[in-house]
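Glycosyltransferase family 1 protein, Leptospira bouyouniensis. Tokens?
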Amino acid sequence: MKVIYDISVLAWSVKSNKAKTGIFRVIENVLFQLLKDTSIELYLSSIHGNICDLRVYLEKQGIRLNDQFLFIPKNYSSKKDLVFKYYQWILNRLDWKKYPFFSELLKSIFTTLVDPWLSLLGLNEYLRPIPNAALTKEFIFHSTFLPITKYILNSDIGKIVTIYDVISLLYPQYFEGNQDEVVWKLIRDLNKIDSVITISEYSKKDILLCTNSISKKQIYVTPLAASNLFYKEISDKKINKVLENFGLIQGEYILSVGTLEPRKNLKNTINAFLAMECLTDYPELKLALIGGKGWGTEREKLLGNFTLEQRNRIVFIGFVPDELFSPIYSGAMFFVYMSFYEGFGLPPLEAMQCGVPVLVSNTSSLPEVVGDSGIYADPNDVSEITRKMEIYLRNGKLRIIMATRAFERSKLYNWEKTKLLSIEAYLSIYEHNH
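Tokens:
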């Protein structure tokens, strides 16, 4: 069985560590598992360009495959990458959700006029990195995040896409601008797709709400796993050395993770934390928040009405290098994740794998992931979140019990299992085509 696994997204991490998002980690970890599997013949592709960075990524990771297994332009350069980037940018701007007929017409005119010039500039491999010989039923193409380009969509090759969630379609209020463009394009093209991989039963249900182009049987659920970057750090010395950089004390902070955006519900998390009546009994206790900037003005909105004393209780750690995750997680009293909606919910699982008790939302996929190993609260109810925080805060024995449960449940999730379920999806397409 010949599988082409698209790794376009992995190149983004070369220029910025901030590109190492949850989706990046999923694609990378499944890739590492597939590379070790002998039941499939694995090919790698990058249909969205950025080849210079991708080559750097492959070299850094020590991934060396024969050229015949790399459907990646061989005659590449930074100038070609830049030209192709602008070419794709224009095509994306012409892809109008509200006016599909005119959009297709304009894209057709644009490609008819421009593609010959790109070919003259030596960008043929960028336009069609997957050769015609591979666009047959003998191959399966897996798009791991981005929409599939037209020449692949219209070919005989088996096609499977990963849709992590459809939050941007169901809850557009949580997103700015065109952040839904990847998802709606994937949904739009499902009538030409053989199967879909998604990451939870909840996401599967939501995908079916958004389209009639695919059946329940065509959607495969492959639960995720936490990276091995997340583990129980047992050295107090290592933990304390890291925490000193952020003004934190081991066991004297509650941890939460997420970009500063409304969907992650940090506002209610902060309000609930500061509303705890017993805070005066814990003068050193802080709420630590890991995550990128998210929406620019969100930080001031979160803290605008609080006193200086209250503000000093909130620590914005920001982006964290990989090697610091485990000490920061392991040093927390407990972990809080009050997101309104998740397709899966990796951060709680990461905390569980570090042996930290968790308090999570009772919404979307989170109960599916956490099971009976955590405490739940309604993310809309600040008083309930406060009450549940106080339960953990006042009860050390409960924290020990729930930490043990969380750690044991985290063992149910591993990338080997994710890979095997992905191969099941590939196999169903292969068998159908033969």
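The chain has a mean pLDDT of 92.
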